[in-house]
Fold this protein.
Amino acid sequence: MDRQQHIEQATRSGFVAAKSSAGRSLASVLRVMKLPSPQTALIGAGLVLAAFAAVYVWRRGVFGAASDIGRAAINAVDGVVTGAQEQISETIGITPPSLTITDTDKCSEYAGQYGWLSASERCSAGALAGAALKGKTYYGNEGRR
């Protein structure tokens, strides 16, 4: 089989380079190829997804897969709630929960460096009360051993 016959056979089967040595352009090659319709592509993607899901359930077991799906759903809802809480905090001008200090020692150190008023905005209520009842305020690493 010579080179021209190989190119013609590849053209009929749909495997052709962008420009063949016979002088065919990409547009003429694409007219020869049969591309799937969007519905066929969606059905194929759904079948592949169903196959992956079946293998996943087979490997993890029904209860393991259900547990993973439930955990993913809870994490998605938690992410939405946390994101909303962060945005609301930012909008009204208070410290978002991700930046709130919850450790008593760190809150005490923050109060020593920036003052109790600033610490009352930045620390959680429990950490601020613990730091206030703790007594001595640290300004850094002094006094700790």
About this structure: The two ends are 86 Å apart (CA to CA).
